[in-house]
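Final report, Chapter 2: Outcomes

The project's central promise was a pipeline that accepts a single protein chain and returns its three-dimensional structure in a standardized token representation, suitable for archiving and comparison. That pipeline is now operational. To close this chapter, we reproduce one record exactly as it appears in the project archive, with the input sequence first and the structure output second.
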Amino acid sequence: MAQMSESKNDATAQQPLRLSRVLHARRETVFKAWSTADHVKRWFSPETFTVPDAEVQMHVGGRFDLCMRSPAGEEHWIRGSFVEVTPHTRLVIDMQVTDSAEKPLFRAYTEVDFSDALGGTQMDVVQTYTLVDPSMAWMTAGAPEGWRTTLDKLEKEVVRMQGGTETGVRSAVHATFHLERTYDAPVARVWKALTDETAKQKWFGGTADRWEMLERRMDVRVGGSERVKGRWDGGVVSTFDATYFDVIPNERLVYSYVMHLDDKKISVSLATMQLKATGARTTLMVTEQGAFLDGYDDAGSREHGTGHLLDALGASLKD
């Protein structure tokens, strides 16, 4: 995403741009954000720019056309087509950026890959530029910053798509899931990973380069509480607030927790963790019952994310 700014720094080489972002949503949701003009108009432009017009036909050969308008009213068009469409996994779009008179400025061959990640979906973008007008090198030189603010807007769009912003809708949708993991570690070691703040910090949260810890506290006892609050790449703040109701060392934890995205309460859940020792190995059984609130579309993301966390727990036991 070239940054349409007034600063015209010359680019000495047109190297492919590579960037990635973990978005707080499932792959299906992030992929869908590319699929229609309504979605794309909300996010596919750098900060302060708007997209007043767009046409998106998500199939091979389909159009990907949109107009970016600067705060001063200057317009640039992207005229593109889909080269590859693999649902929820990969997109390739051949784009050409033109000025308001439809004069070609540069080509941006854009490859987008979607993969599961702790916290949601990792989206990797490779954009290869070919200058049509060499005087427009300043635009591609500004692409990293333009993409950064564009992906901030995409983060907000996928949260909106899931119902993670206030809409006035009042609803409750219920879901239950059960997961199991067997770890090559004694039950006391797994118990410590679940109940000791330092040990749990190694696996319960986002990755350090994608997530900034804002607050963490933990008091595992009947009536005790836990809070984990952090800010994701795109600025969305997630907050986990738990209360413990049953604590039997090395055997069972029962707790409830509330999740917020920014200021919106998205769910209230009851979780049960049971541990079973088999020799030097431990099986952890997790059951959750959740109420997803006021239009929030979980679509299985809680179960998916919990599975990633349990895998991260297992990795932490190898340290």
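Archive annotation: The CA atoms of residues 186 and 279 lie 8 Å apart.
This record, like all others produced under the grant, will remain available to the consortium after the project formally closes.
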